[in-house]
Automatic annotation (TrEMBL):
The record marks 146, 196 as: Important for catalysis. Gene3D superfamilies: Isopropylmalate Dehydrogenase. It catalyses: (2R,3S)-3-isopropylmalate + NAD(+) = 4-methyl-2-oxopentanoate + CO2 + NADH. GO terms for cellular component: cytosol. This is 3-isopropylmalate dehydrogenase. Homodimer. Keywords: Amino-acid biosynthesis, Branched-chain amino acid biosynthesis, Cytoplasm, Leucine biosynthesis, Magnesium, Manganese, Metal-binding, NAD, Oxidoreductase. Mg(2+) binds at residues 228, 252, 256. Its EC number is 1.1.1.85. It comes from Brockia lithotrophica. Catalyzes the oxidation of 3-carboxy-2-hydroxy-4-methylpentanoate (3-isopropylmalate) to 3-carboxy-4-methyl-2-oxopentanoate. The product decarboxylates to 4-methyl-2 oxopentanoate. Pfam families: Iso_dh. Binds 1 Mg(2+) or Mn(2+) ion per subunit. The lineage of its organism: Bacteria, Bacillati, Bacillota, Bacilli, Bacillales.
Amino acid sequence: SARPRLDLLVLPGDGIGPEVVREGVLLLRELEPSLPAELHIREGAIGGAAVDEVGDPLPADTLSAALSAGAVFLGAVGGPRWENLPAERRPEQGLLRLRKEMRVFANLRPLRLPPELSFLSPLRLEILGEGGLDVLIVRELVGGIYFGEPRGIFVEGGERVAVDTLRYREEEIARVVDVAFRIARTQGKPLASVDKANVLASSRLWREVVEAKRAEYPDVPVRHVLVDAFAMDLVRRPTAYGVVVTENLFGDILSDLGGALVGSLGLLPSASLSEGGPHLYEPVHGSAPDIAGQGIANPAGMLLTVAMFLRHTLAAEDAASAVEAAVFATIARGRVTPDLAEACRRAHASGRCPAPEVLSTAEFGAAVREEVLRRV
Ligand code: NAI
Ligand code: MG
């Protein structure tokens, strides 16, 4: 066939990472014949798994394969087994380095619950509104306090002092803000820029850069919100927000809050976009050591991440929407992994959800594939 070839690098990682990645790959293989590119999938080592194998959480061959791939999928890294390693050999450092080397500066984290799944949210129906939850967090991913120098624990005057540095160059702010503006324009949504400009110098520069960008997007309504006020607002009136752009650490914390708003961290996908290089696709959750190895992890976040790949790397919008609809329809039928069972049981008691049928990771993945095939 004349389809172009696309090389995918899949990095399962640790804990539930391999369990959810397996479902993502099965879904990709199922969709492959109808996609605009021929997918060639290979696996690589990262995180604790790579530390065990070769003593390095980001082996050189994994990094070079990632940089030359058409797209990279990642499960999750980390776990108690590797917690006491020196900082540079911890699994999480491997992931931070991968993001940095791939220059995937714009991390898109949609918080979405369609109205028929409102019962999963701890928020009341009248707060969620008729459209359900639909907020996109755009998190800066390769700058800020996770990377700034100097950093470390030093001895000063006989006691230990810890230092982290929150540092942003103008250009690092401008490029992620530009992505957020572009998406807000395309989706016809307002943009909120979240910062701490009343205290932090980096946030004052952030605000100035947003103000300057505004001229290029006069059609996009913009406001600045302080991060503490935003945390409260996101819970009290999420419908006030469309696209939200923020720096690395704030975005990390706020998207876990988002996980609580949709009912499970296991539901959240993400896409980390570079400029010109391959994008990195990973669910928002971590390696979940508390449930790893039991076959009960929710793969929905990974499957929705596959949808983001279809949209952002392949521009296969129909396939992307079909995957999203299939994931949401499966859950709406009450076919859920254990993390959603309790919410479903409560909703069933009030007639908002069919009696839950609790599925394993693999069963949920298969149910979604079956639904998708009916839609593509
Ligand atoms: P976590 O996201 O792994 O788990 C938090 C809670 O959510 C746990 O109770 C877990 O069981 C639940 N959960 C997460 N994903 C789920 C899923 N798909 N289905 C059902 N339940 C799910 O965060 P935690 O426990 O703080 O961190 C565990 C390890 O993961 C640590 O080593 C941490 O550093 C690492 N981590 C890695 C990330 C990544 O690879 N991107 C992101 C966050 C944490
Ligand atoms: Mg986090």
